[in-house]
Amino acid sequence: MLRLAHFSDVHLTSHRLGWTGRDLLTKKVTGWVNVKLLGRGRRFRHAPLIADALLDAFRTRNFDYLVFSGDVTKLAFESEFRQAAARLLVPGLPPVLGVPGNHDYYTGPATRAGLFEKHFAPWLAGERIDHHTYPFARKVGPAWLIGVNSSTANWSLWDASGAIGREQGERLVRLCDHLDDGPRILVTHYPLRTAKGHVERRTHRLRDHASALELAKACRVSLWLHGHIHRGYVLTPTDAIPFPVICAGSCTQTNHWMYNEYEIDGNSLSVLRRTFDFEKKTFVDGERVQLQLG
Known about the structure:
The protein contains 8 helices and 13 strands. The protein has 294 residues and is an alpha/beta fold.
């Protein structure tokens, strides 16, 4: 039996962000206003405490692997990446496969500098096509974890959408053609659908969701894991989407704080939601769902 933990949207930050004059011309300014004045900072004020409780669970619950589906920072300052790496890349944890979120690719300079890739390189090890970082795949027991970057740096102040893109999609098909048998678990930041099965609003969605779904079918994906939406949910297979799609939610946002545990035995998937108990300062068991892989 393969045991995985799936966490997402940690949104850690630092006390000294390290502003430069160049930053004042980017969407970091509106992001900072959102953090300081519009409530995002308050919603994530306990993030360091909860992240430490999360790491305690990862050390003690006998996982084979951890899966991270993006947004380790709030505003993609390098100071945030440094502090997040110092907190999360610590001894005693199972290995991690991770992909960036839109907050990690918040601006063009952060994206071009490869700050997520620089500070979280251990999470990006795997088989890949040519010299391109994404996509990449790692064999974990009987299954393949496949990391795909669905995040893009957007110029519009309120644009939080993403895309896989044609070239990465072509590499994904080529990569999957070389993988041997076993369940294929796709990991992105962006979802295919909301909890109600709808495509997200235009400024928050995976822009190429239709072609991404066709890619997943062509690659014989068994399970799609993602974050981005801070309330976790599970979508069971349908005729349109023939594999489970699972959102981990945010592990650190107040009153949403959760992560998922997965047990894979053959084609059977058990999903356990674990939520943070603030009084006990630990994560506790919640709802369990039984599914079949696609």
